[in-house]
Design goal:
about 475 residues, alpha+beta, Beta Polymerase, domain 2, Hydrophobic Seed Protein, Hypothetical protein af1432, 4 domains, two-stranded antiparallel sheet, 23 helices, 13 strands, elongated
């Protein structure tokens, strides 16, 4: 339950902070209104950490820049077209935006900006009531024209105006509903969910980059599964990540297999739990979380119903890696993220061969070599992929993975496994064989790498002898 007494005290402390006082006094001296808006007000009321400060004002961008320049060490006007000026004041970043009302013209992917003069009008055009509150400064008056405080107490996400109008103004707000539901643990009002379901197609006017940004913020939240469920249930996820709702495979009375969609959500939750336990101080690992969510998206395309009621998904790991790379490319993810996610999906089944029978040291080396820099992420994903309710099977798989991690550590200590490479580099290969740069050097390097993986460290002299024998046999 929200404690309003504590919330009011936190608001007062926010208004009294040196940065807020400095900015508020400057705008008051210039004859303009100023208010802290949106997230900082919401977070102060519910006791969440407050990060960057967002202000709104009736001053226009040129006036904002003129006012903040003397009190700041840096200014940036990259958002000037949208009425936003950024500045660094007393070491903190602030953004100050002219009262406005954004909407789309229905044809382009960019919002149309109209500046306003009244704070209440600005607030009711915002996404949700809990974000449509403001604290006027320096007078410290809370402005809440849409009942945001009541919705904070109730834990509900609701739009300040008719959700169909609000989402029509900016369809990305539908994605924000899922993100804030996950971040705050709030329920989405029924009329808001219904509006999302009816307007999913309008997301097409929003640029892929903006959609990607909201997806990343959702996945970085404490409980992204809550938001993903909303996106699937309303049909919105099908507009930009259709492979996830497609995981809800039809199951007939003769062929039985686990619910792939629910399994994937469980894997995501378990991966987040493992990520936090192993790296409690690290930032949320979005590529890992993407891989956990998407690791089985190759199953619908590879599903085969076998006689006797069996179901197979042969090569769904390879198919899923390709699908994930293509989809992330459409969403304008960077190449590193695409590569990491695709690699983890491609490798996520590899361990289960270990669970079925002991691997040689050579097989363990190859597992490490193939995972490369993503080995730790692969450890987490593979462990999270165990969702069986059979306690004996779960314990057996956990013990098997404990064993492979222990063996990897032992081999790493013995052989510097994290940097597996042949014992002769390209220059030495050329010297030993008496050849210049070319294709043969690469072939020789790969041969020596296989020797290294199969036999471990054999020493430079032995490696040279093996190389000469390979060269003679090749010739």
């Amino acid at each position: 339950m929200l404690n309003m007494v504590d919330g009011v005290a936190r608001l007062a402390a926010l208004a009294a902070s040196p940065v807020v006082v400095r900015v508020a006094d400057a705008f008051a001296a210039a004859g303009f209104e100023l208010a802290i808006v949106g997230g900082p007000v919401r977070d102060a009321l519910i006791g969440r950490p407050t990060h960057d400060l967002d202000f709104a004002t009736n001053a226009r961008p040129d006036d904002i820049l003129r006012i903040v320049t003397p009190i700041s060490t840096a200014q940036w006007d990259i958002g000037r077209a949208f009425g936003t000026i950024g500045a660094r004041v007393q070491g903190e970043q602030v953004e100050i935006t002219t009262y406005r009302a954004d909407n789309y013209d229905g044809a382009t992917r960019k919002p149309v900006v109209a500046f306003g003069d009244v704070l209440d009008d600005d607030l009711v055009r915002r996404d949700f009531t809990v974000n449509a509150m403001a604290l006027r400064v320096p007078e410290r008056a809370l402005v809440d024209p849409s009942g945001g405080v009541e919705d904070l107490v109730a834990g509900v996400l609701r739009t300040p105006i008719d959700p169909r109008v609000s989402f029509g103004d900016d369809p990305l707000r539908m994605l924000r509903a899922a993100r804030f539901s996950s971040q705050l643990g709030f329920a989405v009002a029924p009329e808001t969910s219904e509006a999302i379901a009816g307007l999913t197609a309008t997301l097409a006017i929003v640029s892929p980059e903006r959609v990607q940004g909201e997806l990343v913020r959702l996945l970085a939240s404490d409980d992204p599964v809550r938001g993903i469920r909303l996106l699937v249930e309303t049909g919105l996820l099908a507009e930009f990540l259709p492979e996830v709702p497609a995981l809800r495979l039809e199951v007939d009375e003769h062929h039985h297999h686990k619910d792939v969609y629910e399994h994937s959500l469980t894997v995501l939750r378990q991966a987040i739990a493992l990520e936090r336990s192993r790296h409690p101080d690290a930032e949320p690992d979005v590529p890992l979380r993407l891989a956990a969510l998407l690791h089985d998206i190759g199953k619908p395309a590879t599903r085969r119903l076998e006689p006797g009621g069996g179901v197979t998904f042969h090569h769904h790991d390879v198919k899923g890696a390709r699908l994930a790379r293509a989809r992330l490319r459409d969403l304008r993810f960077d190449s590193d993220t695409m590569t990491v996610v695709a690699r983890l999906i491609e490798l996520h089944l590899r361990f289960f061969g270990y669970a079925e029978g002991a691997w040689t040291d050579s097989a363990v080396r190859r597992y490490v070599r193939d995972a490369g820099e993503e080995l730790e992420r692969l450890h987490i994903l593979t462990r999270a992929d165990v969702t069986t309710r059979n306690k004996r099977k779960a314990a057996r798989l956990a013990a098997a993975y404990d064993d492979i991690e222990a063996r990897i550590s032992q081999l790493a200590a013995q052989e510097e496994l994290d940097a597996i490479r042949p014992e002769l580099d390209g220059n030495r290969i050329q010297e030993v064989l008496g050849i210049g740069p070319g294709r043969e050097v690469g072939e020789a390097y790969r041969y020596l790498l296989e020797v290294r993986l199969d036999e471990g460290v054999i020493g430079a002299d032995a490696a040279e002898q093996r190389l000469l024998e390979w060269w003679a046999a090749r010739s």
